[in-house]
Amino acid sequence: MIPEKIQALFNFISYLEKNKRVYIEEYIPLCNELKNLDNQRNELNPNENYISKQQYDKIQNEIEEKFSSILSNIYTPITIKLKELGIWSGDEAYSSIWNNNISAIFDFKRSFTSEDILQVIQYKQKYLSFRAETNTDFLCLSFVFQSLDETFKELFDFFNNTNENEFDSFETKTIKVNSMEEAVNGLKENRKGNVKFSIPTKTFFSDNPKKQIQTSTTKVKNKIFMGDKIKTGNITNTSGQISIGKKNTIKTNGNDEMVKKSFNWQKWGIITGTILAIIATIITIIVS
After folding, report:
1. Rounded to whole angstroms, how far apart are CA atoms 217 and 201?
2. Predicted TM-score of the model (pTM)
3. 143 within 8 A of 241, measured Cβ to Cβ
4. What is the DSSP annotation of 157-202?
5. What whole-number distance in Å separates Cα of residue 165 and Cα of residue 171?
6. What is the pLDDT along the chain (288 residues), one digit of tens a residue?
7. Do the Cβ atoms of 20 and 134 come closer than 8 Å?
8. How many CB atoms lie within 10 A of CB 44?
9. 198 neighbors 177 (Cβ within 8 angstroms)
10. Cα torsion for 11, 12, 18, 21, to the nearest 10°?
11. I need a surface site. Which of 2, 25, 145, 279 has the fewest CB within 10 A?
12. What span, in angstroms and rounded, lies between the C-alpha atoms of 221 and 266?
């Protein structure tokens, strides 16, 4: 028999499957329209003259109007469903998607029955089909789907009959680099890719006990980790992640304004500058 928490994950997959056709036919085209509008907006300089300013404001209003439909019909229902099922606790980082379910997944992998296998495989195919056929984060669900992908992969890989990575076509790719400069250059080269960069912790910190670390809190538009991203699963000792790519969004709070701003920050020049600024702002190393 499928345990309750595993069944909750499967119920969410059923929810996605139920709405998949509407997402594909109505909202993915709308997302594409918004991306085109964003490109048009980026070509304007509203500070240059009144004509550019008027055009910019017109496009901005159109973006906000169209994006409100995605918030109302995609972001809000999906996040509400995740909370109803106990999959997500409502945290801004969405780390609870992993933390709330990983123990149940480990337990299930130890105690599943032969009768469970067919059900697991059926739901695995439904989730893989949904992610492959939509292959989008709807401009506002980047971290949600990244966390879901990690969680479902932990479950479904155990029931894989081959060594093939069934999540390869849509999962975030990790690129290992040795410095922040390499990460920024990689960002420029992978502007249209869904990638994250892993930088060794020693790049930022040494073992010198005379060094004092000072940090400050800064709100940023990308998911940036110095050192290790802490979860209750496997944790490395040597590297952390900077997640950057077309599927990143802002997460400062859970309201609609936050999500609306996330689309405004899909500008690669600003993102690149932000990353560099964060390194200078967040970490100050003083040698005594």
Report:
1. 19
2. 0.69
3. no
4. GGG-SSS--TTTTTSPEEEE-SSHHHHHHHHHHTTTSEEEEEEEGG
5. 10
6. 899 999 999 999 999 999 999 999 999 999 999 999 999 999 999 999 999 999 999 999 999 999 999 999 999 999 999 999 999 999 999 999 999 999 999 999 999 999 999 999 999 999 999 999 999 999 999 999 999 999 999 999 999 988 888 888 777 667 777 777 777 776 666 655 556 666 776 665 555 554 444 443 433 334 444 344 434 444 344 444 444 444 444 444 445 454 454 554 444 444 555 555 555 444 433 333
7. yes
8. 18
9. yes
10. -160
11. 25
12. 9
Distance of CA 6 to the CA centre of its chain: 22
Angle between helices 142-156 and 102-111 in degrees, nearest 10? 20
What residue type is assigned to position 95 of the chain?
Answer: S
How buried is 258 (Cβ within 10 angstroms: 0-12 exposed, 13-18 middle, 19+ buried)?
middle
Rounded distance, CA 108 to CA 129, Å?
A: 23
- State residue 81 phi and psi, 5-degree precision: -65, -40
Whose tokens are 């990353």? That residue is 275
Distances (CA, A) of 186 to 112, 194, 227: 42, 12, 19
